[in-house]
Specification:
Elements lengths: L1 H23 L7 H7 L4 E5 L6 H6 L11 H13 L3 E9 L2 E8 L1 E9 L6 H5 L4 H4 L1 E2 L1 H17 L6 E8 L5 E8 L5 E8 L6 H7 L9 H4 L6 H16 L7 E10 L4 E9 L5 E9 L6 H4 L13 H17 L5 E10 L4 E10 L4 E8 L6 H5 L12 H13 L3 E10 L5 E10 L3 E10 L3 E13 L4 E10 L2 E10 L8 E11 L8 E16 L2 E15 L26 E14 L10 E13 L3 E15 L4 E14 L28 E3 L6 E3 L2 E12 L9 E12 L11 E2 L5 E13 L2 E12 L9 E5 L4
Helix pairs in contact: 12-14
Length: 784
């Protein structure tokens, strides 16, 4: 009975308290949680902190003295302190009206070190880990840093990397954190295969993508890296490759990479659907803009009837037409090609529609990401400024010009709304790349023997887009010293200006029986004339100083003084030359390093004064044609000619004549063709006019992987030399008795990291008895 009575009394009391509490505004604490919900914080107590001051801890709390503590803001305070990384453990709780904060501090880090790292430098790894900047040690933070390092190695192709850490206690009680990295072997790409590529050879497709198979120089080029993002880019590159070669419907159905752990390498397979091949049919222009001269726009069209379909030619034509419309004063003109497919004939009829676009103006151009390159270097590549009409074609053209600078890894240009409906803001985001080259190079040339060079090159000097190069070279034939500086936008105009200074020392007994020291400098200016045509002018001064000349035939032959000098050379003689000239260049090749189609043409003239008085003229041209496109076979025809005109009848000094050799007909030594002095000296005296023609077929070598970059070529050269002689001061000369020089041969061409190197094996057919020949020649390959 007593227990029942007590239970009833307790129940009635509880009901009364619940009923009275709302009326009094007082909360009666029944449980600990309810007390925390309603308790006002009168003071905050912080304990356990040694290095971290109390004010810092209080700044992380979500509740302050005088505020009410709730479970929500107490937990928020605890989580904020934990997230700071300063503490190993945190407790936040109310005790009466006091908020107690108890912390155990994380260990302080005095230094961070790395062991076993070869792929990334210590400086690079330091930027990846938070412990290097926060200087506190937590297990969660270290785990995150390990994942970051592993991800960087994985992206670099090191799939077997392992990263562990150890700590060492320093004298002051702080920790030294050491990341121990076992890189393992870098995973490469064992093979790249294609399925469904009936019209295009595998080697051609491999040359079009970024991912390369592992090869002998992969350790240097690192282009055999598998990356999922790069593979996505490769899919698009293959599609564009087909689209530029007549296959508008080509698709990459899949790109699959399989990792072989036993070989530590990837096998990549692309599955392609080519579709049908098309050509261009009828080409027309239609415009809705009154007053525009449509006939003047036709000069921008690159898609001609009968040519194979090419997406890039379509886009370039639309861009060129829009630029021509802008030049006529129609800044808002927009051009889009309309395509009509004719399946029966396999052609696309193209109509370029030129319409008036929206009248929108560029309010502002924002540039981000250029920590080194000055803003104006980027802005000047746009053919418009803030306040000018907005034209999408001009924006695309500007972006391509910025990319062509070579200063950036990527360039993104986006348009956003401006402050008014007729205004737009352009946002240019760039990612910079290294533009400086510092190094020591060397090699072997059949003309100069073993050579070496120390050079410093900066293509974006001081972030102003200027080009600077310093180089010192040494070979078996002499020494070279070069300085070159170019300002691409002289006085803010589309005119380049530059200065070159040089010194050449040719030792005796190399090409001549005497030595020549040539010192000179020149100023040059270049400007675009029309599309693909540039004009370069120059003015300069040069002095040639002749050394090691044996003036008396009776003198004994000693070191550096060989055969008697020719009568037109005396020891210590100098020839001064004032040079004024120009060069017109036309270039439409599709690839400057490995062209497959297009033409390059150069015509130059130079007047020489002071010790001379003559005009030197030269013309060079080379056209490239795809002969067997799906197999990458390219044909080319090269022509060149030159003449020196004596303007005062005094004759041309032999040191200024054309010294011809493998640069005209392969198989001849340097300065190995043309007239020579009779007798023991046999110095070349050169020719005053020449003309040459060459034909070459360039092809991939079967059984050699494309990633090796080695190709083959067969060729034939023929030339004509003028029999007229320079002024040899009455010296006996073996003149040109056979004006025709010819040879045939084969070559190996290697696309090396230094540039295309080629070794030519030649058989000379036509020559003079005194000409000097060579079976093999090693040179750098050029467009001419």
């Amino acid at each position: 009975m007593t227990k029942s009575y007590q239970l009833l009394r307790s129940t009635l009391l509880a009901l009364a308290l619940v009923s009275v509490a709302p009326l009094t505004g007082q909360a009666v604490p029944l449980f600990g949680t309810t007390q925390a919900q309603a308790q006002t914080v009168n003071q905050i107590s912080v304990t356990g902190n040694v290095r971290v001051d109390e004010a810092t801890i209080l700044s992380y709390l979500a509740v302050r003295a005088g505020q009410q503590a709730t479970p929500a803001n107490i937990e928020a305070s605890r989580q904020a302190l934990v997230a700071s990384g300063l503490f190993q453990s945190v407790t936040v709780a109310m005790s009466g009206s006091t908020l107690n904060v108890r912390v155990v501090e994380s260990s302080a880090v005095s230094s961070v070190a790395f062991q076993g790292n070869r792929r990334f430098t210590t400086a690079q790894l330091n930027t990846m880990v938070d412990v290097a900047t926060r200087r506190v040690y937590t297990q969660e933070g270290i785990a995150g840093d390990i994942q970051t390092i592993q991800a960087a190695y994985d992206q670099a192709g090191y799939t077997n990397v392992s990263v562990t850490t150890r700590t060492e206690t320093a004298a002051d009680g702080r920790l030294r954190v050491v990341f121990v990295i076992n890189e393992g072997d870098r995973a490469g790409v064992a093979a790249i295969n294609f399925t469904g590529n009936n019209a295009m050879g595998a080697n051609q497709l491999k040359s079009a993508i970024l991912t390369k198979e592992s090869h002998l120089l992969s350790w240097l080029t690192r282009d055999d890296l598998y990356d999922e993002d790069r593979l996505a880019v490769d899919r698009e590159l293959i599609r564009l490759y087909y689209a530029d070669r007549g296959f508008p419907d080509a698709r990459v159905l899949s790109a699959v990479a399989e990792f072989d752990a036993t070989r530590n390498a990837y096998f990549i397979n692309f599955t392609i659907e080519e579709g049908e091949r098309y050509q261009f049919g009828n080409i027309a222009i239609e415009t809705s803009i009154p007053g525009i001269n449509a006939d003047a726009l036709r000069g921008g069209i690159r898609t001609n009837r009968g040519d194979r379909y090419s997406l890039s030619d379509l886009n370039k034509s639309a861009e060129a037409i829009a630029v021509r419309a802008t030049q006529q004063g129609f800044a808002f003109a927009e051009v889009r090609p309309r395509l009509d497919r004719d399946i029966a004939t396999g052609t696309f009829n193209v109509t370029y529609l030129v319409d008036e676009g929206a009248r929108v103006y560029v309010e502002r151009i924002n540039i981000v990401g250029n920590t080194r390159t000055r803003d104006f270097v980027i802005r000047r590549e746009f053919d418009f400024a803030e306040g000018d009409p907005f034209n999408r074609t001009m924006v695309t053209r500007g972006r391509a010009a910025i990319e062509a600078l070579g200063f950036f890894e990527s360039v993104q240009v986006t348009a956003g709304p401006g402050s008014a409906p007729d205004k737009v803001v352009l946002n240019v985001a760039v990612v910079e790349r290294s533009t400086g080259d510092y190094g020591i190079g060397g090699g072997y040339s059949t003309t100069d023997g073993i050579f070496g060079e120390i050079s410093l090159t900066e293509r974006n000097f001081l972030g102003r887009g200027q080009y600077l190069r310093l180089a010192v070279g040494r070979s078996e034939t002499g020494e070279t010293y070069d300085f070159s500086f170019t300002e691409p936008r002289f006085m803010g105009l589309r005119i380049s200006a530059g200065v070159d200074a040089y010194r050449r020392v040719v030792s005796e007994e190399t090409l001549y029986s005497y030595g020549i020291e040539t010192t000179g400098a020149r100023l040059r200016f270049g400007l675009p004339i029309v599309e693909n045509v540039t004009l370069t002018t120059h003015i300069g001064y040069e002095q040639k100083y002749f050394t090691d000349v044996r003036t008396n035939p009776a003198d004994p032959v000693v070191e550096n003084r060989g055969q008697p000098a020719p009568p037109y050379i005396t020891d210590g003689m100098t020839l001064d030359k004032l040079m004024v000239g120009y060069t017109l260049a036309y270039n439409t090749v599709d690839n400057q390093r490995r062209p497959t189609e297009g033409m390059v043409l150069s015509f130059s003239q130079e007047y020489a004064g002071l010790s001379h008085n003559f005009l030197k003229s030269e013309v060079r041209a080379r056209a490239y044609y795809p002969l067997w496109e799906e197999m990458g076979v390219v044909g080319s025809i090269r022509g060149q000619a030159g003449a020196i005109t004596d303007l005062d009848g005094a004759g041309i000094h032999p040191s200024e004549a054309f010294m011809l050799g493998p640069n005209l007909v392969r198989g001849f030594a340097g300065a190995g063709m043309g007239a020579r002095l009779s007798g023991a000296g046999r110095d070349p005296v050169g020719v005053l006019a020449y003309a040459g023609l060459s034909a070459e077929i360039d092809f991939p070598i079967p059984m050699l992987p494309e990633s090796w970059g080695i190709r083959g070529a067969v060729w034939g050269d023929v030339a004509w030399l003028d029999s007229a002689l320079p002024n040899v001061a009455g010296a006996p000369v073996d003149a040109v008795s056979n004006p025709i020089k010819s040879s045939v041969g084969a070559s190996l061409i290697w696309d090396s990291p230094m540039g295309p190197l080629r070794g030519d094996f030649a058989h000379v057919i036509d020559k003079d008895t005194h000409d000097r020949t060579q079976v093999f020649q090693l040179t750098m390959s050029t467009l001419f």
